[in-house]
Structure prediction request, 219 residues.
Amino acid sequence: MGKLLSVNVGRARPTEHSDIGATAIDKRSVEHRVTVAAPGPRGTEGSSGSGIVGDRVCDHRHHGGDDQAVYAYSREELDLWERELGRELPNGVFGENLTTLGLPTTDALIGERWLIGPEVVLEVCATRIPCRTFAGWLEEQGWMKRFTQRALPGAYLRVITPGEIRAGDELTVLSRPAHAVTSGVVFRALTLEPDLLPLLLDVEALGPHQRKHAERRVR
Prediction:
């Protein structure tokens, strides 16, 4: 069992590090209860793109939608980066909606389901691939290469059962599939270890965008 340390939301801000000139990667922790609901397919008109009500996704072409509804990163992984970078990294700084404790998100299996609080159920379904907006936000030299080599991507989740959550809620893993494909394995397959790509093809819960990418490269 883990704990939800914080729920983090962001609003659109101008940036020169995005093709569309705006980003909501600057997530800030909120103390009130927050509604979680499926945002609809990526690019749905009128949708914020995020599964966290009050949060925003700016680049709807590459981010958001049902299969990237919620992004989670663990406090343990942030602490590792704090030591490596020599700087403070507050909850939400990686653009994550959920900062967890006691649950290493990179090791979460694709298809694994989490219960947060008494009602919300989320399913791990994709990995995070770093982009230049992320690099520009952190202002770390060679960040995309460094993040890729470290292979601690966290995890994207889809909403199975909507409801409300807040910081301090218990986080319970309800079920795990029989395979061994974690978010970290997906990340490594799509970046530096293409020999792992065939493992992704039989994982039903993997988001369609990353599944299609794997299929194209295997063929």
